[in-house]
Protein backbone atom coordinates (compact mmCIF):
# COMPACT_ATOMS: atom_id res chain seq x y z
CA UNK A 1 0.00 0.00 0.00
CA UNK A 2 1.73 3.22 -1.15
CA UNK A 3 1.21 6.31 1.04
CA UNK A 4 2.03 10.00 1.01
CA UNK A 5 0.38 12.28 3.59
CA UNK A 6 -2.49 9.81 3.93
CA UNK A 7 -3.57 10.56 7.51
CA UNK A 8 -7.08 11.64 6.46
CA UNK A 9 -8.06 8.21 5.16
CA UNK A 10 -5.46 5.63 6.23
CA UNK A 11 -7.24 4.72 9.48
CA UNK A 12 -10.48 3.92 7.61
CA UNK A 13 -8.63 1.84 5.04
CA UNK A 14 -6.73 -0.16 7.64
CA UNK A 15 -9.88 -0.62 9.71
CA UNK A 16 -11.64 -2.18 6.72
CA UNK A 17 -8.90 -4.82 6.59
CA UNK A 18 -9.19 -5.83 10.26
CA UNK A 19 -11.72 -8.66 9.65
CA UNK A 20 -9.25 -10.20 7.21
CA UNK A 21 -6.50 -10.03 9.82
CA UNK A 22 -8.76 -11.59 12.46
CA UNK A 23 -9.65 -14.48 10.13
CA UNK A 24 -6.02 -15.02 9.16
CA UNK A 25 -6.63 -14.08 5.53
CA UNK A 26 -4.24 -11.12 5.85
CA UNK A 27 -0.90 -11.97 7.44
CA UNK A 28 0.88 -8.62 7.04
CA UNK A 29 0.25 -5.09 5.81
CA UNK A 30 3.15 -3.37 4.07
CA UNK A 31 3.07 0.42 3.91
CA UNK A 32 5.53 2.06 1.50
CA UNK A 33 5.73 5.75 2.35
CA UNK A 34 7.00 8.37 -0.05
CA UNK A 35 8.00 10.98 2.53
CA UNK A 36 4.90 11.90 4.53
CA UNK A 37 5.17 14.89 6.86
CA UNK A 38 1.83 14.28 8.62
CA UNK A 39 0.87 11.47 10.99
CA UNK A 40 0.80 8.72 8.34
CA UNK A 41 3.87 6.93 9.70
CA UNK A 42 2.59 7.11 13.28
CA UNK A 43 -0.71 5.56 12.21
CA UNK A 44 1.08 2.79 10.32
CA UNK A 45 3.43 2.05 13.22
CA UNK A 46 0.66 2.05 15.82
CA UNK A 47 -1.43 -0.45 13.83
CA UNK A 48 1.39 -2.94 13.38
CA UNK A 49 2.09 -2.34 9.70
CA UNK A 50 5.49 -2.99 8.21
CA UNK A 51 6.77 0.40 7.05
CA UNK A 52 9.21 1.03 4.20
CA UNK A 53 10.44 4.53 3.40
CA UNK A 54 11.30 5.47 -0.15
CA UNK A 55 10.93 8.25 -2.73
CA UNK A 56 7.50 9.58 -3.69
CA UNK A 57 7.10 7.64 -6.94
CA UNK A 58 4.20 5.20 -6.99
CA UNK A 59 5.87 2.73 -9.33
CA UNK A 60 8.88 2.56 -7.06
CA UNK A 61 6.70 2.34 -3.95
CA UNK A 62 4.67 -0.55 -5.35
CA UNK A 63 7.80 -2.37 -6.52
CA UNK A 64 9.38 -1.99 -3.08
CA UNK A 65 6.24 -3.09 -1.27
CA UNK A 66 5.67 -6.20 -3.37
CA UNK A 67 9.33 -7.14 -3.07
CA UNK A 68 9.08 -6.91 0.73
CA UNK A 69 5.80 -8.86 1.03
CA UNK A 70 6.36 -12.38 2.34
CA UNK A 71 3.05 -14.07 1.52
CA UNK A 72 2.20 -16.40 -1.34
CA UNK A 73 -0.54 -13.94 -2.36
CA UNK A 74 -0.41 -10.15 -2.65
CA UNK A 75 -3.35 -7.76 -2.28
CA UNK A 76 -2.45 -4.35 -3.69
CA UNK A 77 -4.62 -1.33 -2.98
CA UNK A 78 -4.35 2.39 -2.40
CA UNK A 79 -4.47 3.97 1.03
CA UNK A 80 -7.69 5.87 0.28
CA UNK A 81 -9.76 2.83 -0.72
CA UNK A 82 -12.12 0.60 1.27
CA UNK A 83 -13.24 -2.87 0.24
CA UNK A 84 -16.98 -3.52 0.22
CA UNK A 85 -19.13 -6.17 1.90
CA UNK A 86 -18.21 -9.75 1.14
CA UNK A 87 -14.65 -8.99 0.12
CA UNK A 88 -13.16 -11.81 2.20
CA UNK A 89 -15.32 -14.45 0.53
CA UNK A 90 -14.43 -13.07 -2.90
CA UNK A 91 -10.72 -13.03 -2.10
CA UNK A 92 -10.76 -16.55 -0.67
CA UNK A 93 -12.72 -17.82 -3.67
CA UNK A 94 -10.25 -16.27 -6.07
CA UNK A 95 -7.30 -17.80 -4.23
CA UNK A 96 -8.91 -21.24 -4.25
CA UNK A 97 -10.40 -21.26 -7.75
CA UNK A 98 -8.24 -18.93 -9.86
CA UNK A 99 -4.61 -19.31 -8.79
CA UNK A 100 -3.24 -18.50 -12.24
CA UNK A 101 -5.15 -15.24 -12.64
CA UNK A 102 -5.05 -11.77 -11.08
CA UNK A 103 -8.33 -10.41 -9.75
CA UNK A 104 -9.47 -6.80 -9.55
CA UNK A 105 -12.47 -5.22 -7.79
CA UNK A 106 -15.48 -3.20 -8.97
CA UNK A 107 -14.47 0.46 -8.70
CA UNK A 108 -16.66 3.13 -7.09
CA UNK A 109 -15.95 6.67 -5.91
CA UNK A 110 -17.24 8.21 -2.68
CA UNK A 111 -18.79 11.05 -4.69
CA UNK A 112 -22.47 10.91 -5.72
CA UNK A 113 -22.06 13.25 -8.70
CA UNK A 114 -22.82 12.06 -12.22
CA UNK A 115 -19.35 12.88 -13.45
CA UNK A 116 -17.79 10.68 -10.76
CA UNK A 117 -20.08 7.84 -11.83
CA UNK A 118 -19.11 8.49 -15.45
CA UNK A 119 -15.41 8.32 -14.66
CA UNK A 120 -15.86 5.08 -12.71
CA UNK A 121 -17.84 3.63 -15.61
CA UNK A 122 -15.17 4.63 -18.14
CA UNK A 123 -12.52 2.94 -16.02
CA UNK A 124 -14.72 -0.15 -15.79
CA UNK A 125 -15.07 -0.22 -19.57
CA UNK A 126 -11.29 0.16 -19.89
CA UNK A 127 -10.71 -2.72 -17.52
CA UNK A 128 -13.20 -5.03 -19.25
CA UNK A 129 -12.62 -4.21 -22.92
CA UNK A 130 -8.94 -3.32 -22.88
CA UNK A 131 -7.97 -5.60 -19.97
CA UNK A 132 -6.31 -2.65 -18.25
CA UNK A 133 -7.72 -2.11 -14.75
CA UNK A 134 -6.40 0.99 -13.03
CA UNK A 135 -4.57 1.03 -9.73
CA UNK A 136 -7.78 2.26 -8.11
CA UNK A 137 -9.39 -1.12 -8.87
CA UNK A 138 -6.97 -2.88 -6.54
CA UNK A 139 -5.26 -6.12 -7.54
CA UNK A 140 -5.02 -9.61 -6.04
CA UNK A 141 -2.49 -12.04 -7.46
CA UNK A 142 -0.16 -14.81 -6.40
CA UNK A 143 3.50 -14.19 -5.77
CA UNK A 144 4.29 -16.74 -8.47
CA UNK A 145 2.22 -14.87 -11.06
CA UNK A 146 3.62 -11.50 -10.01
CA UNK A 147 7.19 -12.76 -10.42
CA UNK A 148 6.35 -14.52 -13.68
CA UNK A 149 5.28 -11.29 -15.43
CA UNK A 150 8.11 -9.20 -13.96
CA UNK A 151 6.09 -7.25 -11.40
CA UNK A 152 5.78 -3.48 -11.23
CA UNK A 153 8.14 -1.24 -13.15
CA UNK A 154 9.83 1.74 -11.52
CA UNK A 155 8.30 4.33 -13.82
CA UNK A 156 6.82 7.78 -13.29
CA UNK A 157 3.22 6.81 -14.05
CA UNK A 158 1.00 4.09 -15.52
CA UNK A 159 2.81 1.35 -13.62
CA UNK A 160 -0.65 -0.21 -13.19
CA UNK A 161 -1.20 -0.27 -16.95
CA UNK A 162 2.25 -1.76 -17.55
CA UNK A 163 1.52 -4.60 -15.13
CA UNK A 164 -1.93 -5.21 -16.65
CA UNK A 165 -0.40 -5.39 -20.13
CA UNK A 166 2.19 -7.87 -18.86
CA UNK A 167 -0.57 -10.02 -17.36
CA UNK A 168 -2.76 -9.92 -20.47
CA UNK A 169 -6.49 -10.51 -20.78
CA UNK A 170 -6.35 -14.25 -20.07
CA UNK A 171 -4.73 -13.70 -16.67
CA UNK A 172 -7.08 -10.95 -15.47
CA UNK A 173 -10.56 -11.41 -14.02
CA UNK A 174 -13.06 -9.06 -12.36
CA UNK A 175 -14.35 -9.78 -8.87
CA UNK A 176 -17.87 -8.85 -7.76
CA UNK A 177 -16.89 -6.99 -4.59
CA UNK A 178 -16.75 -3.20 -4.79
CA UNK A 179 -13.77 -1.07 -3.86
CA UNK A 180 -14.68 2.52 -3.00
CA UNK A 181 -11.98 5.11 -3.57
CA UNK A 182 -11.76 8.64 -2.19
CA UNK A 183 -12.48 11.19 -4.92
CA UNK A 184 -10.60 14.11 -3.39
CA UNK A 185 -7.56 13.93 -5.64
CA UNK A 186 -9.81 13.85 -8.71
CA UNK A 187 -11.94 16.77 -7.53
CA UNK A 188 -8.91 18.93 -6.73
CA UNK A 189 -8.45 19.93 -10.38
CA UNK A 190 -12.09 19.49 -11.34
CA UNK A 191 -13.64 16.30 -12.65
CA UNK A 192 -13.97 17.45 -16.25
CA UNK A 193 -10.41 18.74 -16.54
CA UNK A 194 -9.07 15.70 -14.73
CA UNK A 195 -10.99 13.28 -16.93
CA UNK A 196 -9.75 14.89 -20.14
CA UNK A 197 -6.17 15.21 -18.88
CA UNK A 198 -5.94 11.63 -17.66
CA UNK A 199 -7.54 10.28 -20.82
CA UNK A 200 -5.07 12.20 -22.99
CA UNK A 201 -2.09 11.00 -20.94
CA UNK A 202 -3.38 7.43 -21.13
CA UNK A 203 -3.66 7.57 -24.93
CA UNK A 204 -0.19 9.09 -25.25
CA UNK A 205 1.23 6.34 -23.05
CA UNK A 206 -0.37 3.66 -25.24
CA UNK A 207 1.18 5.41 -28.27
CA UNK A 208 4.61 5.08 -26.69
CA UNK A 209 5.11 8.50 -25.09
CA UNK A 210 6.95 7.94 -21.78
CA UNK A 211 5.15 9.31 -18.71
CA UNK A 212 6.55 12.39 -17.01
CA UNK A 213 7.33 12.37 -13.29
CA UNK A 214 4.68 14.08 -11.11
CA UNK A 215 5.38 17.76 -10.52
CA UNK A 216 4.13 17.77 -6.92
CA UNK A 217 3.64 15.27 -4.14
CA UNK A 218 0.16 13.89 -3.69
CA UNK A 219 -1.45 11.42 -1.35
CA UNK A 220 -1.58 7.80 -2.45
From TrEMBL:
Keywords, sorted A to Z: Cell membrane, Glycosyltransferase, Membrane, Transferase
Gene Ontology cellular component annotations, sorted alphabetically: plasma membrane
Organism of this sequence: Asticcacaulis biprosthecium C19
Span of domain Glycosyltransferase 2-like: 1-102
Locations listed in the record: Cell membrane
Coiled coil spans: none
GO molecular function: glycosyltransferase activity
Record's protein name: Glycosyl transferase family 2 family protein
Keyword Transferase annotated: yes
PANTHER family given in the database record: GLYCOSYLTRANSFERASE, GLYCOSYLTRANSFERASE 2-LIKE DOMAIN-CONTAINING PROTEIN
Predominant location category: membrane
Amino acid sequence: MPTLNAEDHLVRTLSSLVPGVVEGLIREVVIVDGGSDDSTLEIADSTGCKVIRTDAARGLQLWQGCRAAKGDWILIMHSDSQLGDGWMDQVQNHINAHPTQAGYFHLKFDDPSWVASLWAELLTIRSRWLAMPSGDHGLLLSRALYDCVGGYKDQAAFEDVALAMALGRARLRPMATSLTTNARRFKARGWAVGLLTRSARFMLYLLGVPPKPPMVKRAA
